[in-house]
Write a structure and sequence with these properties.
Number of helices: 12
Structural class: alpha/beta
Shape: globular
Largest sheet: 7 strands, mixed
Number of strands: 11
Mean pLDDT: 93
Low-confidence stretches: none
Order of helices and strands: HHHHHEEHEHEHEEEHHEHEHEE
Bound molecules: S-adenosylmethionine
Distance between the termini: 64 Å
Strand content: 15-25%
Length: about 300
C-alpha cells in the first residue's frame, strides 16, 4: 500500500464510522504512523509503506474509531503556530481560544496607545497570570508575543501543570513562566507574586475556565465527555458558576487599569457580563468567534 492509497483507505474507514473531520484525521494519523512530514506525503504519494507502518496506521485508525481523539493518538496539537504536547490530563487546545490571545494583545496595545507609548509592545514590566493553564497554551502563546513579560501559570491539576511545564521547557519559555498548583489564586504559596494587594500584582489576568454545564454532559461528543478531564470541562451545573469566583478574585489581584480577558462558553455571556460592572470594572468589550458566538469578554480594573 502506498501513501496515496493509505490516505484514501483511512478516510473511507473513518467516514464509514461517522468520524468528523475524517480527511484531516486520516492524514495526521498516517503522518504519525510513518513519522513523516505533510510535505513528504504529497510529494512522494507513490512511496510504499512498510508492513510495520501499515500495522501502526491501522491500529491508530481503529483506536480513533473507538472514540479516542486524534490528539491523544498523536500526542500533540497545534496552537498559535506551535506544537503542544497533549495528554488525557489536559484540555486539547481549541482554535477558538486563539481569539483570547488576539483580544489580550489588542487590549494591551490599546492601553499602551492611551498611555502615549504606542511602540512599547514587548511586554517589558508586565506580570501576566494564566488561570487554568492546562497544556500551557495561553501563557506560552503570550510569552512568544511578549518576549519581556513575566508569567504565572496556575492550575488546580498537578498532572496538567506537569504537561504545561514540559511544553514551556520544550518551546523555550520556562524561564519566564512560574507554574503554581492552586485553586484559582487561593492556595498558591508557590505564586506569591499574585497575592492580593501585592505591589507586584497583575497587569493581565487571562483564563479559559471550565464553562460547560454538567447538565449538558449527555449532549457532548463522546470523545470529549469520555476522554478530556472533567475538571477542565465543567464549570458547575449550569456551566457559568466558575466565573463569579474567578472575577471576584481577579479584581483583588489586578493593578488599577489591569486587564481581565476571559473565554466564554457558547451561552455564558448573559450570566458573565453583569459580573463585570461598575465601579469595579470599566471598558468591557465582547468579541465574537468565527461562528458569530460571543467568545471573549475583556474588562479593565477601574
Ligand atoms: C478549559 S481548561 C483550559 C486549559 C487551557 N488554558 C486551554 O485554553 O486549552 C480549564 C483548566 O482550568 C483548570 N481548573 C479547573 N478548576 C480550577 C481551579 N479551581 N483553579 C485553577 N485551575 C482550575 C483545569 O484543570 C483546566 O486545566
Amino acid at each position: 500500500m502506498n501513501f496515496r492509497d493509505a490516505l484514501k483507505h483511512g478516510i473511507g474507514h473513518l467516514r464509514a464510522a461517522h468520524i468528523a473531520s475524517n480527511t484531516l484525521a486520516a492524514e495526521l494519523l498516517l503522518l504519525h504512523a510513518t513519522k513523516r512530514e505533510r510535505t513528504y506525503l504529497y510529494s512522494h504519494p507513490e512511496t510504499e509503506l512498510t508492513p510495520a507502518e501499515i500495522a501502526a496506521y491501522q491500529s491508530l485508525l481503529d483506536r480513533r474509531v473507538s472514540g479516542i481523539p486524534v490528539q491523544h493518538l498523536t500526542g500533540k496539537q497545534e496552537f498559535w503556530g506551535m506544537s503542544f504536547e497533549v495528554t488525557p490530563d489536559v484540555l486539547i487546545p481549541r482554535p477558538e481560544t486563539e481569539h483570547l490571545i488576539e483580544v489580550a494583545l489588542d487590549r494591551l496595545a490599546l492601553r499602551e496607545l492611551h498611555a502615549g507609548r504606542p511602540n512599547k509592545n514587548d511586554g517589558a514590566g508586565l506580570l501576566i497570570a494564566d488561570v487554568g493553564t492546562g497544556s500551557g497554551c495561553i501563557a506560552i502563546a503570550l510569552a512568544k508575543e511578549l518576549p519581556q513579560a513575566q508569567f504565572v501559570a496556575i492550575d488546580i491539576s498537578g498532572a496538567a501543570l506537569a504537561v504545561a511545564q514540559r511544553n514551556a521547557s520544550r518551546l523555550g519559555f520556562s524561564e519566564r513562566i512560574q507554574f503554581a498548583a492552586s485553586d484559582l489564586f487561593l492556595n498558591s504559596p508557590a505564586a506569591p507574586l499574585v497575592a492580593p494587594d501585592s505591589p507586584l500584582s497583575c497587569d493581565l489576568i487571562i483564563s479559559n475556565p471550565p464553562y460547560i454545564g454538567r447538565r449538558e454532559a449527555p449532549s457532548l461528543p463522546q470523545e470529549v465527555r469520555n476522554h478530556e478531564p472533567e475538571v477542565a470541562l465543567y464549570g458547575g451545573e449550569e456551566g457559568y458558576e466558575f466565573y463569579a469566583d474567578l472575577i471576584a478574585q481577579s479584581a483583588e489581584r489586578l493593578k488599577p487599569g489591569g486587564l481581565l480577558v476571559l473565554e466564554l462558553g457558547h451561552d455564558s455571556l448573559p450570566a458573565v457580563q453583569p459580573l463585570l460592572d461598575a465601579p469595579v470594572w470599566k471598558n468591557v468589550s465582547v468579541t465574537n468567534d468565527l461562528a458569530g458566538i460571543p467568545r471573549v469578554i475583556a474588562a479593565e480594573a477601574a
